[in-house]
Design a protein that fits this description.
With 259 residues, the protein is α/β, with parallel strands linked by helices. It is 46% helix and 11% strand. The chain binds zinc ion.
Length: 259
């Protein structure tokens, strides 16, 4: 039972020198006044526009009681406050820098710097294979694991065929560039082919260890037999080392050549 309920009169009436409040407290007072009138039909205290000093803690307590009617609500509010503070300090420490990290960044960057960055689900098995200890550590971090959609991947395949880098890009590479393109964010990689495609797609590139050049280049296919050259098709076979295709004219292997 509240103070007002038990007495049915406000203490203000007995105070010799009532005090006028201002600012936030007056807001609470006016809110309290409405509540007071609604609940008890009394306007004798607040009608004077006065509130005594000793009432202030009770008012705040009662306003709090009104908003958070039971113990679990107050607990929930407590947790919410802690969460908001946590989010705020995380935001201060990692100000809006969200990048897509390739596997070399996951292996070489300080572990704290990797936290909250965008990574491809396809990297998980790659990372596990290359460095199991590191993977176990990365697994515990709060990373943003994603996979690009088919449409997003197709955009990258088209761009990579234009630059001629496509035959040497792996599925993970394509996925990472597609994630950077779809999220319009920086791609962190030392792979010069990925850098080339990302720049062609208008994505900012950051190197992991090397300083990294900013040059843009193009590759074409050239037959080692008849020397015929042609552009890379958007459905070209992708492999780290195999020949891309055989020459339509003479049947000899075609190799990638920088122009
Ligand atoms: Zn040929």
């Amino acid at each position: 039972m509240s103070y007002y309920g038990s007495q049915n009169r406000c203490k203000c009436d007995n105070e010799p020198q009532p005090k006028q409040h201002g600012g936030v407290v007056s807001l609470i007072v006016s809110h309290r006044k409405e509540h007071h009138i609604r609940r008890y039909g009394l306007n004798d205290c607040f009608g004077k526009g006065q509130q005594c000093q000793s009432e202030r803690p009770k008012l705040i307590e009662e306003v709090e009681n009104q908003f958070f009617s039971n113990h679990s609500m107050r607990c929930f509010f407590g947790f919410l406050r802690v969460w908001v503070i946590d989010v705020f300090f995380t935001w201060i420490r990692y100000p809006s820098f969200m990048a897509v990290l390739d596997t070399s960044a996951l292996l070489n960057w300080p572990i704290e710097r990797c936290r909250h960055q965008i990574v491809s689900v396809l990297q998980q098995s790659e990372l596990n294979r290359v460095d199991e200890q590191r993977w176990l550590l990365i697994e515990t971090l709060d990373m943003d694991w994603r996979t690009a959609t088919e449409d997003e991947r197709q955009i990258v395949l088209d761009i990579a065929s234009k630059t001629g880098d496509l035959p040497r890009l792996s599925d993970v590479d394509v996925d990472l560039i597609a994630l950077a393109v779809s999220n319009k964010t920086t791609l962190v990689t030392d792979d010069y082919r990925m850098q080339n495609v990302a720049r062609a797609a208008g994505i900012e590139v950051q190197s992991v260890v090397t300083s990294g050049g900013t040059k843009q280049w193009k590759w074409v296919l050239r037959c080692i037999g008849c020397r015929k050259t042609e552009d890379v098709a958007s459905d070209a076979r992708r492999s780290r080392s195999d020949d891309v295709k055989e020459c339509d004219r003479c049947g000899a292997p075609m190799k990638l050549k920088r122009v």
